[in-house]
Structures are given as structure tokens and as C-alpha cells.
Design goal:
- It holds the Pfam family RibD_C.
- The structure is a single chain.
- By secondary structure, the chain is α/β, with parallel strands linked by helices.
- The chain is built from four helices and twelve strands.
- The chain has an eight-stranded mixed beta sheet with strand order 7-6-5-8-1-9-12-11, with helices on both faces. A two-stranded antiparallel ribbon has the order 2-10.
- The longest helix has 13 residues.
Length: about 190
């Protein structure tokens, strides 16, 4: 089985979106450099951010996200983001009526089913879990191996929390990655078992 990583860009005060459910400046670091992050050339980061992020993206086999994220992004137009092979959507609702069933997306009910399906699809590759409500549930269930965050120098004050509704203490190991890029601090924490 591959590693399970909880991930998102996050404000200094712990939010992945503002009170209006918008990322605001949280993705500014993705256009603050001169090194193209993907083939589109739309995303340009510092060399440090490129080396760290590209290597991580290349290991991801599956992303697990909630239905809210899927709806917010309009299902990424049926194309998983960042060149990822497959997306597992945690939802109690069926796919949209006009959804292309050939698109590499699975719709499952609950985090247990999502993680089973994600591990099946990812094999030895990384399973990325989008931070927020679903990510917090996966984290609270003890299914996350690593917490990765791109901390952006902004205080949002309120909004969607990185760990969703997690309200119990969970200890992490000391960070094994601390890297400074343009407008971002990349951090990675192994989860203490």
C-alpha cells in the first residue's frame, strides 16, 4: 500500500478557504516564480517549490476529495487535477446526471469505502487526501501517514479549517521537511503512531 498524505495550501491561521469558501491568496505561490510546474505553463513557482512539489505530484496515484470540493471545481471538467490518475469522491449523492461515466472518478459513500477504493487504485503510489472536512475525518480515523501543508503568509481570520471538524489532540512527529519557496513555506509532518 502507498502512503496516505493529507494535503492543502493553508493560511497561517489554519484555513484552506475563506468564509466565502474562496481560496483567496492561498494559491498565489503557484504563480510567484519563474519555473513552470506543469506542461501548461500556467503555474510557475520557485525552483525550491518546483523540486518539492513536482516530486510529490509525480508520486500521487489517487486523490480523495469530498463532494463539496468536486462541486466547487465542477469536477475539474472530468480531468483529475495535476495529472493525477484518479479521483475518489466521498459523497452520499450520485454523480451529476450528465457525468461522463468513463471519466477516472469513483463516487463512494463514506471514508472507509473511499480509502479502500483509493488504495486499490493507487497500489504502491501515494493516496492524497484533500484537507478539510473529509480529510479531517480520514485523519481522525488514524488513516493518514503524513500531513503536508503549503503555508501561505496570510491570516484569513475564518473559513474552512485545514483539519475540518477535528477537535481532539493528535501529536505529529517533528517536521521532516521545512522548505521556503516564494510566498510559501512547505512543511511535512509524519503522523505519530
Amino acid at each position: 500500500m502507498g502512503k496516505v498524505v493529507l494535503y492543502a495550501s493553508v493560511s497561517v491561521d489554519g484555513f484552506i478557504a475563506d468564509a466565502d469558501d474562496q481560496p483567496g491568496p492561498l494559491f498565489d505561490w503557484l504563480v510567484s516564480g519563474d519555473v513552470p510546474l506543469d506542461e501548461s505553463g500556467a503555474l510557475k513557482v520557485s525552483q525550491t517549490s518546483y523540486d518539492y512539489t513536482r516530486a510529490y505530484w509525480d508520486r500521487i496515484g489517487v486523490t480523495v476529495a469530498g463532494r463539496h470540493v468536486f462541486d466547487q471545481t465542477d469536477g475539474w471538467g472530468g480531468e483529475p487535477p495535476g495529472g493525477i490518475d484518479h479521483v475518489v469522491v466521498v459523497t452520499h449523492r450520485p454523480p451529476p446526471e450528465d457525468w461522463d461515466t468513463a471519466a477516472p472518478f469513483s463516487f463512494v459513500n463514506g471514508i472507509a469505502a473511499a480509502m479502500d477504493r483509493a488504495q486499490e487504485l493507487a497500489g504502491e503510489r501515494t493516496v492524497e487526501v484533500a484537507a478539510g472536512d473529509v480529510g479531517g475525518q480520514v485523519f481522525a480515523a488514524g488513516l493518514v501517514d503524513e500531513v503536508r501543508m503549503d503555508v501561505v503568509p496570510v491570516v484569513l481570520g475564518s473559513g474552512k479549517r485545514y483539519f475540518g471538524s477535528v477537535n481532539a489532540q493528535h501529536l505529529l512527529e517533528d517536521p521532516d521537511v521545512v522548505l521556503r519557496g516564494n510566498r510559501v513555506l512547505h512543511l511535512s509532518y509524519p503522523v505519530r503512531r
